[in-house]
Amino acid sequence: MTATAQRVRRRSNPTPIPNRPKVLLLDYRRKLLAVTTNFWFRQLSSRFGFPDNYTTLDLETTGLSPADDLICAIGYTTVAKRRPVETKEVILDWTRQPEVDQAKLRQDLLQTADAMQRQNKQHHYPYERLRAEGVDPLPALQDILARLEAMEQRREVLIAHNGWRFDVEFLQSHFYNWLRIDFRIDPELMYDSGICEKASQLPERCDPLPYAGESLQDFSWRIGNVRARGIRWALDSHCQEQYGLFEKAGIDQSQAHQAGTDSLLLYHLFETHRTLAGCASRVDLHDEGSQAVATDN
């Protein structure tokens, strides 16, 4: 065999290269996020079958007031063994509900669409779509309530973005106002990805890390009440820029702000948080510069 043939054979049968851990370059914000998510992951996993099985949830509404506005759409993604097994969106048709002021409903939807347009965001739930594609709201609310109750029985965690201050408030308000059921989501069974993203950007004087003994619900309300300039944590802007969620989900960005789409984006965000949480033991918060951290995830 010639030397040339030997060289060709060596190239066609290369020596396998062992798998190497992925290396993440963490700036101070991501290091803070790693420590925060790790704290909540440990708190939740010590009590429940978390975080392998969970459900992500997103709501789209006619406004921002749980007492006065209505849920337009409910989206959720069910995750088993860290894999999404179902993504579903349910549009609620309030146009045939006799107790709903139809003129106000139309006006609220138009105002919401106008506000989103001014932010270069697309509104997907005009009055006509609710009427054409929506279902009776009351059975739909009963179904989501039954799902939440079943999750609590299984001790599975609900994932939402600004969940405690928005999604939970809307759901609890609707359960009471429309079903006459005073249901309260277990404060131990909700992970708020939005609040963790916000906390990771706050200065030290704002106490962004969880207190000893603080619940996720209390942490979410405390951090949610902090006012600071330049803090961004929306799924379609900040989280997309940081983590490329739409590329991971294989979804076009024009589909943002649809409840089903956003629930799937939340799955990818939460799995990113899982990766960061696994880096926490190797993070040095005293060094505010960037730090390379190896992870097997």
Commentary on this structure:
- This protein is α/β, with parallel strands linked by helices and 297 residues long.
- It has a single domain, classed as Ribonuclease H-like superfamily/Ribonuclease H (Nucleotidyltransferase, domain 5, 2-Layer Sandwich).
- It is built from eleven helices and seven strands.
- Mean pLDDT is 86; it is low at 1-21.
- It has a five-stranded mixed β-sheet. A two-stranded antiparallel sheet has the order 1-7.
- The protein is globular, with a radius of gyration of 22 Å.
- α2 (28-45) crosses α11 (259-277) and α5 packs across α6.
- The class by helix and strand makeup works out as alpha/beta
The total of helices stands at: 11
From the alpha-carbon coordinates, what is the Rg to the nearest angstrom? 22 Å
* CATH topology annotation: Nucleotidyltransferase, domain 5
Helix-strand pattern = HEHEEEHHHEHEHHHHHE
Sheet with the most strands, sense and barrel status: 5 strands, mixed
What is the strand tally? 7
Number of domains: 1
How much beta, percentage-wise? 5-15%
Q: How helical, in percent, are the residues?
A: 40-55%
Q: Which regions have little confidence, pLDDT < 50, spanning 5+ residues?
A: 1-21
How far is the N terminus from the C terminus? 44 Å
CATH homologous superfamily, by name?
A: Ribonuclease H-like superfamily/Ribonuclease H
State the name of the first-level CATH class.
Alpha Beta
> What is the subunit arrangement here?
single chain
Name the average pLDDT. 86
General form: globular
CATH architecture: 2-Layer Sandwich
Order of strands across the main sheet: 4-3-2-5-6
